[in-house]
Amino acid sequence: MDAHRAAEAAARVSYGRLLAFLAAPSRDVTAAEDALCDALRLALETWPLNGVPQNPDAWLLTTARRRLIDKVRHERVRSGATEGLKLMVDNDETFGERLPDKRLELLFACTHPAIDPSVRTALMLQTVLGIDAARIASAFLVSAGTMGQRLVRAKTKIRDAGIAFEIPDRAELPARVESVLDAIYACYGMGWEITPAAETGNRDLVDEAMWLARLVVELLPQEPEAKGLLALMLHCEARRPARRFNGRFVPLSEQDTRLWSRPMMVEAERLLSAAAPMRRVGRFQLEAAIQSAHAERARSGRVDWSAIEQLYRGLVALAPSVGARLGQAAALAETDGAARALALIDEISPALVAAHQPYWALRADLLRRLGRTAEAREAYERSLGLTKDAAVREFLMAQCLPATKDGARDCSR
Amino acid sequence: MQYAILIYEKDSDFSARSDGQRQGSYWAGWRAYSQALQESGVMRGGAPLQGPHTGTTVRANGGKRHVQDGPYADTKEQLGGFILIDVPDLSAALDWAARCPAATTGVVEVRPILQRNAG
Fold this sequence. Notes:
The structure holds 2 protein chains of 2 kinds. Chain A is mainly α.
């Protein structure tokens, strides 16, 4: 038996659970990480010799906890502090087959309002999933050193500011759940941005986000928004195989619906149906409902744009964002025409969209439909210059070229 | 803060510049990128460079001058140009670097400009 693989598997499945349990009493995430890391290293050394223990998690936990106690003892000698040790000993309850699951508490700590929003997703990925800082850094487009510093600062804050590992009370819960879901969705968005192609192998962040969303749905069964988020991501993932054809970008309206994953769409619908009777509509349920309306094309071959427009209107009212306003405008273009849609996006403050790729892509499309070819070409070029995705760049270029031909005279600037 | 975006391209990128089949999309990508930089108000300067074979290196040490044909470093990706931008911080600079067409075909390096105090 490959002990190395067993250790890796244990780490993979149980990392967050072990870390949450180790860190909860002292709130010292860094110390818990170090101890767990030591335990994993020791597992790699001893398991190949002595065999994989019957309960690998329990072995890792006991070893890590011993390390933590050693460390506290060591520090106590230095500083005379006894509180840490006491915490450790108090926590030494026995656990049976299953370790108490403190991951939800850990998620709430990572996304606490006192933690800088820009670091919450990264912190969650590192602590709950054990993803290393360098990989997280690349996803966030920052250097490993910078990301490392940010994570250290956030963990120090959790420890020193006394951010408790607990489930927030009823009054606070909805807002705190929203922070958790936002952080998961940000992770999904990042995976989306890096690996939009169906054929690319590295889609880890997307998988991690799906996994976290499933975890939250499981741990918070009474939260309709958690179901909404998972439904939203499932609908988007269902279309992944259709989004590229021979490496080329295929926009939603031209996707072959036969390539959409039925099981994922069914699961998404089931989640939305389960969320609806809880009668607390939120941003993620609305976004998922919009995707669900798009998914209808796979069944009926039609898209109900007026329903989509209404859903976006609700979304804009509830959680105004440039993305939601663009979505509403795109739907409005189908129901009321491109001119109305263009008027709607003209209301968005130019400062918000100067470097917003989807804005320029939609603007270009609307101008093209209105026959304003030269302006359309300029907007296509702008959106082209703002994309990070080579396939999207090529797609937009193809949109640009006919415009150049048609409007050759207007374009000779 | 000002940053230089240093653009390193592969042989195939350099050859795309004048290849009848590929030059259209090569230059369209760059034109759009530099236009987006300009219209977003972050562009401060920059220029594309001719291919590495046009480079000549000079070294003058120990009273001796060495002139050598070719670029300084013999690497797979070669400096193909640079852009100077003014953005609030490194993450904004990296965001612009990721949009650079060469980010998907070659390598793009971001470096802050050395600020020298007056006097």
